[in-house]
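Running co-folding for zinc ion.
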Amino acid sequence: MQLTITGYSTALFSTWYFIEEWGILFDAGEGLISSLLQKSRKIDQVFISHADRDHITGLLQLNQLNARPGFPVIHYPKDSDSFRALEKFSKLFDPHVSRTVWTPVTEGDEIPIAKDLLVKPIRNSHVPVEQHIIKSLGYQVIQTRKKLRPEYASLSGEELRQLAERQGRDSFSMEVRTNLLAYSGDTPVEDGAKWDNTKILIHEATFLGNGEDIKVRTFGNKHSNLEEVMEMVSTLHIEQLILGHFSSRYSPEEITIAVKDLCEKYAINIPVRLILPGETVHDLLGRNPVNL
Ligand SMILES: [Zn+2]
């Protein structure tokens, strides 16, 4: 699986990640279009984690330049009223983008993005609301493949063909799911089980120290602390880690050293790559890991 991930993610200012091969965008902070230029036309589906302005202000320009009938499809947490206001405004302000589709999503949904790929929203506690209210989400991209059930493994191609004619293919095949990539959105560190067995995890790590700052916690929303993220990652089966959403109070050197130290402390041997404050990274996975 070769993925080209381009992104920007600095706490308070802007966050977006574009996965080129899948035509999907996680969050839509400003700078998205001016960085991606023509490539932004490849964005078919947008998955927004929450309504903080630094995650959505690129939407107007994305729509303005790229809207075509039925696309892009903008998915947002279902109880976030900001998106209904933004949809209304966008359609009034730029009538030609009225074909953009705005879709509320919630935990339990499965959104197909290709024949064998779907996206599942995953609730998090960034916005403190009651459990049944959905205002902040992460997302998991899952590959679904049909595989022969083991009890049919001995049948020949011809026998399977006949069986398929008689009973349909579903009678001897089963679905196998693989978690290819997960995006945490803005979130405190929570039960790591929801990210376990994922090939690539993109997680936020706003703070280096423990609960040290209130300023970035706009409206009391909750964020992750780097050490808690690394401790969680050390217990998970994942293949690659991308860390972003660092606060701009930290220098690139401070962040890099802190990540390297924690990789040692928690014996993390998978590649760890960073999006540092203020930088737009093209082809994140092509970048050298900081820890290997
Ligand atoms: Zn944020």
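Result summary
The chain has a mean pLDDT of 93.
The longest strand covers residues 137-148.
Job closed.
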